[in-house]
Amino acid sequence: MDVVKDDLKQQVEYLQQQLHKQEKMASLGLLSAGIAHEIQNPLNFVINFSKMSVKLLEDLQDIVDNCTDKLDENDVADMQDISADLKENLEKIQEHGERAISIIRGILLHSRGKAGEMLPTDVGQLVHEYVWLSYHAMRANDKSFNISIKENIQENMPKVMVVPQDLSRAVLNIMNNACYTVKERTGIEGEDYKPAIEVTVALTQDGSGNGELRVDIADNGMGMTPEVKAKIYENFFTTKPAGQGTGLGMSITHEIITKNHNGKLLVESEPMVGTTFTFIIPVKIAR
Ligand SMILES: Nc1ncnc2c1ncn2[C@@H]1O[C@H](COP(=O)(O)OP(=O)(O)OP(=O)(O)O)[C@@H](O)[C@H]1O
Ligand SMILES: [Mg+2]
Q: 239 C-alpha vs ligand 2 centroid, how far in Å?
């Protein structure tokens, strides 16, 4: 009798813990949706004012063009150079503002728990794009930093059915960690160490419209101890200094691969050798 009681008690405790975790995640979702929503408005101002400024600049240019005979030739040339630069800058503000808006839309979509739609996707192209997006994002903070990135992407792959915005987020999360770890190791070992990341994409098909997609992302960074490796899919688990990691990247990636795509996410890692993340997902070949 006591054994049954203990068992029940454990189950109740387990369920209570799960409930608590879910409540935490739900309030995090609400919080991020709230923040995302609030940021949309000022961002719209940024974008619209930069659009308006481009128009004003064009008007100003017209006025200058109409009185070139009254001005010094060199001054006119300078003005034209400056206004061309200004226009370019304003367009950059607009472009990146719009990028931020689209990221926020993605957050809003995710935090509402709305499942993404499976769409015919060129997975080779998707992986390629997000690998380089991550690389450039890291280089934006440190221009001197170089990694050798090798891509083995199977050629002439047919499109397959996946949720593109989810899969790209998964690739980005894994790549961001890979870039971070090779950078960290560079800081420790210096010149002798050659940071490298290798990405492989392959698709096997059975001839009746079913396939298996395999993506490997291997880095030669710091690697992980078995203790760290055991925790990477937990929400908020991070070994990064405060402000550099939220510890959500791999838990989101795990959910995307295993739940949203019925796939498997595997990891091999050895300290001071490197880490390889592999995801394998069953896919339908798009017609
Ligand atoms: N390629 C890797 N090499 C070494 N350690 C890794 C690697 N990928 C993940 N880790 C470990 O797993 C932890 C959790 O990773 P995760 O991406 O979930 O969070 P994070 O990178 O710390 O923060 P963020 O939420 O910003 O992604 C990391 O802090 C790190 O310790
Ligand atoms: Mg991460």
A: 10
